[in-house]
Specification:
Blueprint lengths: L1 H10 L3 H28 L1 H9 L8 H13 L12 E3 L5 H30 L5 H6 L3 H30 L9 E3 H18 L2 H10 L5 H6 L1 H15 L4 H39 L6
Amino acid sequence: MALDQVQEEEEGMSFLDHLEALRFHLLRSVAVILIFSVIAFLAKSVVFGMLILGPSKVDFFTYRVLCDLANWLDVPALCIDELPFTIQSRQMTGQFSMHMTSSFIVGFIAAFPYVFWEFWRFISPGLYDKEKNAARGAVFFVSFLFLLGAAFGYYVLAPLSINFLSNYQLDPTILNEFDITSYVSTLVMLVLASAIMFQLPVVVYFLSMSGLVTSKMLKAYRKHSIVVILVLSAIITPPDVISQLLISMPIMVLYEVGISIAKRLEKKRAIAEAEYLKNHPTEEE
């Protein structure tokens, strides 16, 4: 009874009421992002010294793992023990601006699960019970894939891309001296691009639920999807083959996961339709 009352109240909400509700969801989301951003701003030595600048130092976790792997496999080329570049700030407000920007980005990533939860709270009342049941766990899976993608971008894609770019030279007389803005922008682009690309299974799930795509369609366009993924990988990564393959391979795996998800949904839909026909047989004259 209480649920019916809530649904009736929500159905009776005007457009302005919906805007008012959206405003409060947005305000709470922004407030949480700002709280995490302030924490990141105050923890400058950790966020900037260890997190943001981490991939620019040879003692970074990924480089140490690669060196250990190189020793184990006896392949010295795998070890990254030198990053021949320096980071500079060529503008008066450069370091302060990057401190503010980096703190906000870290705050957004940390607050993403809560922000998406607020977004879900806003749209979920407008869904039917069947749609709500189908989308159960959406907040968890979207947040998990987002953070997993961000971790992949930070620990795998970013350090290897930075290593490639720092060692790339047109001529030995040209020194690699990167501006702090360029360094942070590249790092953020790689991390956020990975986080967004890792949402592919969720996108496929909802498209399959709505009937816009099927497993047969996804299989038929598998070769086309590989080309699209490689093109997107080339756009968001530095111009080296290794980085492009590093981002494209997990996306291809996630595409296959999407096909499995679509198959499972189609199987459930077929079982549900069979149950319905069994319980509601058609009358033959």
